Amino acid sequence: MTTEAVIDMLPVSVKNPAEVVATLRKNFYSNKTKSLKFRKTQLKNLIKFFEDNEDELCEALYKDLRKPKTESILCEIQFTLNEVKNLLWNLDEYAKTEYPEKGMVNMLDGVEIHKDPYGVVLVIGSWNYPLNIALNPMAGAIAAGNCVVLKPSEKAPATAELIAKLLPNYLNTDCYQVLCGGVPETTEILKQKFDYIFYTGSTAVGKIIYEAAHKHLTPVTLELGGKSPVYIDNTADMEIAAKRILWGKCVNAGQTCVAPDYILCTKEVQEKFLIYAEQAIKEFFGNSVKASPDFARIINDYHFNRLVRLLKDAKIAIGGHTDPTDRFICPTIVIDVLPGEPLMQEEIFGPILPIVNVTNVQDAIRFINEGEKPLALYIFSKNSKDTKLILDNTSSGGAAVNDVILHIAVESLPFGGVGSSGIGSYHGKQSFDTFVHKKSVLKKNFATVPEKIQALKYPPYTSKKLMLMQNAIEKRKGLSLSFLPQLLFFLLGIVLTVGAYFLWLYINHDGIFKSD
Ligand code: NAD
Prior knowledge:
Elements: H1 3-9, H2 17-29, H3 36-52, H4 54-65, H5 69-95, E1 110-117, E2 120-124, H6 132-143, E3 147-151, H7 157-166, E4 176-178, H8 183-190, E5 196-200, H9 203-215, E6 220-223, E7 229-232, H10 238-250, E8 262-265, H11 267-285, H12 301-311, E9 315-318, E10 322-323, E11 328-329, E12 332-335, E13 352-357, H13 361-370, E14 376-380, H14 384-393, E15 398-401, E16 422-423, H15 429-434, E17 436-443, H16 448-454, H17 463-473, H18 484-510
Parallel strand pairs: 2-3, 2-5, 3-4, 5-6, 7-8, 7-14, 8-13, 12-13, 14-15
Antiparallel strand pairs: 1-17, 6-16, 9-12, 10-11
Helix pairs in contact: 3-5, 4-5, 4-7, 5-6, 10-11, 13-14
This protein binds nicotinamide-adenine-dinucleotide.
Nicotinamide-adenine-dinucleotide binds next to α8 and α9.
């Protein structure tokens, strides 16, 4: 079945985006999604969705990308499941009202931060991790109490179709809807007014999404891509470095947003790296990568041809074999690459790894800073001074030292880009925080004394009132009233102890219970 045929079967044609958004907005204002119990039920159902359908989901991912089952389970299903469980288990904590520190002026007032869901959220997913990237942000939006329209990527049609078919069996359809389709349908969806848009995909389309959002002043998270560099120096353990880098370049056939895009190293380091890289590929996939069940394929002909074009005139040190019949591209390392070459002009997003030679760490920093800010940056070195130098003098969405990709799997680290690699972040608690507006609330009462103090602000203004007000509101270093409750408890403790002591004295010496 062709991609177009599958898309035709998807439910977009029967769902009008304007009607869907209007219904979800109405249901949002019914306050259904604001109940923590309701949100927890939906998150539990999402967990069940993964547990009940693991085999079918793996099959769909195999159809779309020939994704190996291990990668489907670890990078798509288990990864998202863990995120959903984290949201479920911590929801009470994440959602509770915060009572931040307050100053002298507000000593008698309530000062609170409320976690308000935005309303109707649009989540647009990309094809490379079509399950994870659709449902992981959606779980954050659900946990935060929003209604959600999910638009999975049409370029992974089997997965999109399965999500559209199965999800309504698990999630409340009054509040969560899946709309499928390609560019025309997404364009139509984007005409609607959403309260938040969460987009994952290329930087070029990210700009289109940003433009559509700005018409309604809709806040966005843009999870985009870019060229993530790897710097290797001669102190690195080259065997381990080669294995880790090659794994990162081969998982999902290099179609990973945080895949190492290119290497920066000296010629001397390059020679050593190539020896171990060749060994690593053999160890991973045996004598024929093509025959290995553990290596995915390129998503479609457009991307296959784009990657083959990038190899034209390239100086290939390892690999280079391609096969259009099943969109296979062998892990390929290209050397003597110059900054102006096509390979260095766009995110590669495939199993091709160019090496650009630099003379030293300063040269590498200069090279990185001449490009757009990457989504990830990797350093392989035992030299902590140079590692710090790179981290302190470059800007990237995230970074890992002596490994690749895995920083995004640390739940306590927010994941997102900077500059052209994205706006905003998610994962862990940040997935909840992304989808709530932190509403500042000040609560006062009508008591006489505070009103007398406040009356200073009312006209007619006088210099005496001004002086008193300035004294009251002037910021003073280290002056905070956050210790007040502890101080009161402490004082109360002293009063009670002293009181008990005197009572004891009274009773034992000349108290009323002593008879003469
Ligand atoms: P894609 O083609 O699936 O597009 C993403 C979404 O945008 C799809 O749902 C698609 O329907 C929609 N879209 C495409 N063109 C559109 C248009 N003109 N108007 C409106 N909507 C449109 O995916 P892609 O863009 O090829 O994704 C690959 C890119 O995504 C890479 O650059 C990769 O680095 C990046 N990515 C980033 C992350 C991250 O978390 N930062 C994760 C995965 C992928």
